[in-house]
Write a structure and sequence with these properties.
By secondary structure, this protein is mainly alpha-helical. The chain has helices at 14-28, 32-44, 52-63, 71-80, 87-114, 148-152, 170-179; strands at 121-125, 142-144, 164-168, 181-184, 201-204. It is 44% helix and 10% strand. Bound molecules: zinc ion. Zinc ion binds at residues 132, 134-135, 155, 161, 163.
Amino acid sequence: MSDSQTVMPDPLTETQFKEAFEFVADQVGIPQVLRAEFCKELFSTTKAVIDPRKQTSVVEKYINLFDFRWEEGSRFVSMYHAKSRNPRKQYAELLGNYIIFRAYFIRNFEKHQRTKLVFPYLLLHPFMNESCPVHVGAEYLVLPVDHIYWKQHELVTSVFCRCRHSPVRLKELEKYRKEGVSGYDSPVYDENGRPTGHIHTKLFPIKETPP
Ligand SMILES: [Zn+2]
């Protein structure tokens, strides 16, 4: 989680992590026989502070045990890490991150259910200024927590979706209607795909109808 706004204090539970792991494992074809151990070992890297090196080495160990092919992951690595000297490591890192992002989505969505009396709406934020193929046209969409759109277009069901939700109070919604919400405006990566550190933001109007 590179965006500090997405860091929340509650730890991930093993149940949430397992749900995310199974979702991704089905999608990328991790053999059933490896799953229990793989999941357990990967979950252990999320205790206290996530240790990305340990996480990547766990994923590498398991994906080396079978003929692992993941078309979407290959596309992602070639788009974002084309000049990487160690693409296999990037691939393992990507898969580990995808599972963890998915687990955080599950955790956060459960939390939004619990807090919906105070925060009745969810606002969809794209990741930086990237467009997401799952949420095309839904940038800065605000809908009630229980709106069917959030079920039909869940977050982090693709490695290309790095969107996040923020919970919104009615008062905040009124403000966003008038002023818009702050988001990233211009490219923040250099020609090697690394963050430049320059972040330009501007106000975007919110949307209240699904695309
Ligand atoms: Zn998305």
